[in-house]
């Protein structure tokens, strides 16, 4: 992980703004580039209202980082929370994590509370522009904003993920499996959510990727499984299996629903040899299912986010600027390479 992270940070720092969409500026001349140098300034300047000099905020031993996540109930977001918390503890920083439960009004209130609580950096895993005004006010109060997973107009660093592209990769994996296992004649249900543009784009990508990879497959239904991700995979899959006895593939927008769907499919007597489930997040539960030839057959894994969020927090507090979005690395995982990422306990 350290080698991957170092390669990512080094690569992005060497690119210039001439390469739009996945670049960032080089470090400001004379500013610290290392963890140690970034933390050897006056400890009295921590907090949203700390002192600023020449456009940069001094980094203290007691910087405070806030994570704003849509949920803290699924493995994917729990891992991010745990990872970022460990990175902050290692640096002697304070840390707070808040779930806005996929509700924009709650997200806005949480941002305001983080500003009041004197967070120096807010890592905002928002889904659309509904929080832009609150994030802009946070910036005006001196807080640095890291946007992760989606790009809106307000950020100091955007660790971007093209949601349509992610969806298309999910659909492509499903289509390739259908071609190799079901002679291209798959009967598919797509799980998405219409709660925000972010996931709508991913759902559209799933459908387009599937149609391109397996044109003879049939999408039986596109299902909005809502924002309550815990439990929805189980109940929705039970309903779909009753409604469509011929169903043999599910393409889901996230691992939480997909893993539950896999368990529901197994409970209904479906085998991994002729029933496939594909999704995104690269959680350990999904990897385990792929390794054991459960109906779970493919996922998209993101690079470990906690360490990267902490590194960019450090750079922002040291005065570096990143006006262009930075693409977040991902990796497709199927039975062909799951052994590189998962070891049975």
Automatic annotation (TrEMBL):
Entries under PROSITE patterns matching the protein: PROKAR_LIPOPROTEIN
Source superkingdom: Bacteria
Region (Disordered): 33-55
Record keyword Chaperone present: no
Domain Periplasmic binding protein: 65-310
Residues making up the signal peptide according to the UniProt record: 1-20
Keywords: Signal
Listed InterPro entries: Peripla_BP_I, SBP_2_dom
Annotated compartments: Cell envelope
PANTHER family reported for this sequence: D-ALLOSE-BINDING PERIPLASMIC PROTEIN-RELATED
Annotated protein name in UniProt: Sugar ABC transporter substrate-binding protein
